[in-house]
Automatic annotation (TrEMBL):
InterPro entries, A to Z: DUF6533 (IPR045340)
Domain of life: Eukaryota
Annotated stretches, region: Disordered: 295-344
All residue ranges annotated as the DUF6533 domain in the record: 32-73
Keyword Membrane part of the UniProt annotation: yes
Key word Membrane present: yes
Organism from which the protein derives: Ephemerocybe angulata
Residue ranges crossing the lipid bilayer per the database entry: 23-43, 63-81, 101-124, 131-153, 189-211, 231-250
Name this polypeptide is given: DUF6533 domain-containing protein
Keywords tagged on the record: Membrane, Transmembrane, Transmembrane helix
């Protein structure tokens, strides 16, 4: 029996509704899984945060920790507002939510990456001028990529009045979903910049861990556990996989990208915060000194711009555990010992 035009239109509508609902429900369940895991991790480590971070002064480390820790909370609120809340928003409100999602996700990811770079520098023990150069290059690449994404973010935020399908599914926003060629080119260029940055961070992380292992006593597993290598590996792997999918469309491209975003937004900040807490409890006293001097209280600078442990210097006792010191710190100590011997 032939369907009337009205019946055919209704059939097509119900078919589209079922397909759309299935895809969105899977994505929402995936998001809710990461959100639940993040909240659980937050509650499980809250006491450690109170004892280790709250007493610190408001320096670089505490600011980055707070951003990486609490900005994802704001992102969670915004993502929940986009889910099936059975409330219809105005297009202006939907645009504000979209902009908020982009800002919070970029801010938390950037803070997490900066924490990783600072911790890697502390493990390496290089001079501070190299840290300044590294951070300058990183921020240049990051701001450049964000600049390329401004147009696509602006076009992604364009909203329309809610349709019948949105009202029936319970979703509050309807997006235009069309992008200009310039915006698409900007997103492609930004994805390549992000991939290059992720590769550089991964190579730097592997180099630092390799140097730490080669110059210290003990097994590789012990060094990795002591220096937070598991968190470093996991963080760099997530970041690299996300940028690889964004840049080259591995597999099915956009579908995989949609599923990699929650992992980056919630797993990466959690790993960065865990790494920073772990570094504060490191068995290496020089790493503790460097983490403190770079990101928290700060220490007294010496002639080369390095921080030194004032308590050890005033006591007149030789610095121990040189085998666990960063490469730059160990070389500095060897140089000072040589100068003392030459003067004698």
């Amino acid at each position: 029996m032939a369907l009337s035009p009205e019946e055919l239109a209704e059939f097509i509508y119900l078919f589209n509704m079922s397909i759309t609902l299935e895809v969105i429900i899977y994505l929402d369940i995936y998001r809710v899984g990461f959100i639940s895991a993040y909240i659980y991790h937050y509650l499980a480590t809250f006491a450690e945060e109170v004892s280790s971070i709250w007493p610190q002064r408001w320096r670089t480390g505490k600011v980055l920790f707070v951003i990486a820790r609490y900005v994802p909370m704001a992102l969670i609120v915004l993502l929940v507002l986009e889910m099936r809340v059975w409330v219809i928003y105005t297009p202006k409100a939907c645009e504000g939510i979209s902009h908020g999602v982009h800002i919070t996700s970029k801010l938390s990811c950037t803070a997490a990456e900066l924490v990783l770079l600072l911790c890697l520098h502390a493990l390496l023990g290089a001079r501070r001028r190299y840290l300044v150069l590294m951070i300058a290059v990183y921020l240049g690449l990051t701001l450049g990529a964000i600049g390329l994404l401004v147009k696509i973010y602006s076009e992604e935020a364009r909203a329309l009045p809610a349709t019948r399908l949105d009202r029936d599914l319970g979703y509050p926003c309807e997006w235009v979903g069309e992008f200009s060629p310039a915006a698409i080119r900007g997103r492609i260029m930004a994805s390549y910049v992000a991939f290059t940055k992720a590769v550089c961070i991964a190579v730097f992380a592997l180099t630092v861990l390799y140097i730490r292992y080669r110059t210290q006593a003990g097994s590789l597993i012990r060094v990795i556990r002591r220096d937070g290598g598991a968190y470093i590996f996991a963080f760099t792997a997530i970041r690299l996989a996300h940028t690889l999918i964004a840049a080259f469309g591995v597999g099915r491209g956009h579908e995989f990208y949609s599923f990699s975003v929650p992992a980056l937004n919630f797993a990466a900040p959690s790993l960065a915060c865990r790494l920073l807490l772990n570094m504060q409890q490191s068995e290496d006293p020089d790493v503790q000194t460097r983490v403190t001097s770079i990101m928290f209280e700060g220490g007294g600078p010496d002639h080369s711009g390095e921080s030194v442990n004032e308590e050890e210097d005033m006591s007149g006792e030789p610095k121990g555990r040189i085998a666990y010191a960063g490469i730059g710190q160990r070389r500095k100590l060897e140089k000072e010992s040589s100068e003392i011997s030459d003067s004698v």
